[in-house]
């Protein structure tokens, strides 16, 4: 399990360093996650230690949202003041995500039907 933790942290570190060196406009951990994804694609399988660790980490995923909830309560005055733009952004981003999902799903269904000759 220690190897899995080290692998995850090394990928995150690689992402952070790359973002800092190249001045990229997105979080380092996101790039680190993409690097790990590419590495797993190249490898073709997930190492058993990484799978076991990620499964145990996902069991406690809800705990990772506690700091965000606390942050909302700490800045409740700001949220209360700007509730309308926040609500508009949430509704618009949700609608956009649903539309993109529908387009991608439709394309994948058409592709599958073409491959199976239906």
Give structural notes.
The protein is extended, with a radius of gyration of 20 Å. The protein starts with a helix and ends with a helix. The chain folds into two domains: 1-59; 66-118. The protein is 83% helix and 0% strand. It has helices at 2-22, 28-43, 48-59, 66-74, 76-81, 83-116. Helix 1 (2-22) packs across helix 2 (28-43) and helix 1 crosses helix 3 (48-59). The mean pLDDT is 91. It is built from six helices and no strands. With 118 residues, the protein is mostly helical.
Oligomer: single chain
Structural class: mainly alpha
Number of strands: 0
Poorly predicted runs: none
Shape: extended
For the record, the count of structural domains works out to 2
**The biggest beta sheet, please?**
none
What portion of residues belong to β-strands?
A: under 5%
Task: List the main descriptive attributes of the protein structure presented here.
118 residues; mainly alpha; 2 domains; 6 helices; extended
């Amino acid at each position: 399990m220690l190897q899995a933790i080290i692998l995850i942290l090394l990928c995150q570190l690689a992402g952070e360093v790359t973002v800092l060196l190249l001045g990229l406009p997105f979080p380092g951990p996101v790039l680190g996650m993409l690097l790990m994804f590419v590495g797993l694609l190249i490898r073709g399988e997930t190492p058993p230690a990484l799978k076991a660790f990620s499964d145990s980490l996902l069991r406690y995923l809800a705990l990772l949202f506690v700091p965000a909830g606390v942050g909302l309560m700490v800045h409740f005055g700001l949220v209360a003041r700007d509730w309308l733009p926040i609500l508009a952004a949430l509704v618009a981003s949700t609608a956009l995500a649903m539309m993109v999902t529908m387009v991608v799903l439709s394309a994948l269904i058409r592709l599958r039907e073409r491959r199976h000759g239906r």
